[in-house]
Every structure is written in structure tokens, then in C-alpha cells.
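Q:
Just now I want nothing more than another pair of eyes on a protein record. Here is the record:
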Amino acid sequence: MKLEISASLNYRLSEPVDLMLQIEAANGGGQHVESASLDLGAPEVVARVPGGVPGGDGICEPIWLRASGSLRAVYRASVAIERPTVDLCALSEAPLHRLPAAAVPYLNESRYCPSNKFHAFVERRFGELAAGAKIAAMRDWIESRFTYVAGTSDAETGALDSFVERRGVCRDYAHVMIALARSAHIPARMASVYAPGVQPMDFHAVAEVYLGGDWHMVDATGMSRPTECARICVGRDAADIAFLTAYREIEVVEQVVRVEKA
């Protein structure tokens, strides 16, 4: 299938600001960018980060910007999704000593995913399950018990906060999913994606788990399907995959994301 994607960002800058932008759909990993354009206006500095950033597995090539007054970025792309439907429950789990080196860092705690604090719960609630069946049960548990509520979390909210409050937005659902998976010693990371049908329409966040020798998307919100998602970038948690990171205060004027099936 094919997705038609557009993202328009408009920010007001009260002083010169350094920013990192990650909004371009990645090539590979079950998807192919057939055409794309990115209009950044006329910032003072535009510099790509070859090979991506640590933790990004080279999937995304972030862009450094330095701008004054305003930032206007318009991205459009046509992306073919070639990711097959996968039955999570049928996926096997590799012994830890056989994991590829690239997957090992995703076993560990990160800023928003304090997985060591979930061991007792995971063992009590999911201890009789293994591998993909355990991940599927975790996903279903989160979806059935959490309430999607915009504005109930902020940049300081982590998986433990969301677990206690049982509510949040896509990044919060993904953080809890990742923390539970890592607590069960299954590598898990976070991915930003473009996905049709997400409400409200915006950049979307999902978890990815390493099972059956590959990475597989898991959306605990239930709003997206891996076969209909265009991956942007991956990382340990939301700190790594932000579509825009500003190193000074900035003001949102307008932000519009549209994703449609072609």
C-alpha cells in the first residue's frame, strides 16, 4: 500500500535557536520513499547528521538547523509500505547471549522507561507467557486499561507515571509497552511514524520489539497497524525520536500533519 504524507511546522523564535529536525520518512525496513520534498525556508544553518545519532540505528538522518525569527518546514512524501502482516504470538524469543549487538542496548532502562521497576508486575501478570505471546498480552492489557487523553502528560512524564495514572497519549502508551517488554528481557525501542487514522492526526509513536530475528511494531493504542505505518526514526524512548528538539524556548504557531492512504 502507499501513503501520501504532508507535515507543516510553523514556529516563532524570539532569538537565534539551534534545532534538530526529524520528520522525514526513512527508506528501508519494510518501506520505500518513492518521492519526497522538504522546504525549510532560509535558516542560517542546515546540516545533516550522517549516519544518524546514537541509538537511532542509522534509520533516520536528523537535520541540524539554526534559525532566527521563525522556522517554517514543509515536508511531503509518497511512501510505499511493504511490511507484511505478522502474528506476534508466533514469534520466537532469542536467548540473550544470541542477540545481535544492535539490539542489546534496548534491554536497558532509559530516561522515560525505568523497566527495572516493573519486574514484579510483569512476572505476576505475564509470567506464564513467553516471547511474542507475552508481548501481545502486554499490548492488549495496556490498550484495554488505559485511556487516551490529550494534555494529560508532558515532557517529564515517564512510563511509571503513565502506568499509575492509566492514561496518556501515544508516547505514554509506547513508553509503558517498552518498559514492560524490557522488564521481560525482550529488547524494545520507540519509533516515530506517520500513520493514517490516528486521532488527533499528528506524529505518532509506537513501540518496536526484537523477536523472531527482526524488529516488529507494536501499537498499544490500537490506532495504527504496522502494515500502514511509515517509520521516521527510532530510539530508546521519546527523548531520541522527537520530531523537533529546540535548544531554546520556541512558540508554536501552527503544526499540521496529514497522512492518507493512496
Notes: Residues 9 and 255 are 5 Å apart (CA to CA). The mean pLDDT is 95. DSSP finds five helices and twelve strands in the chain. Residues 131-145 form the longest helix (15 residues).
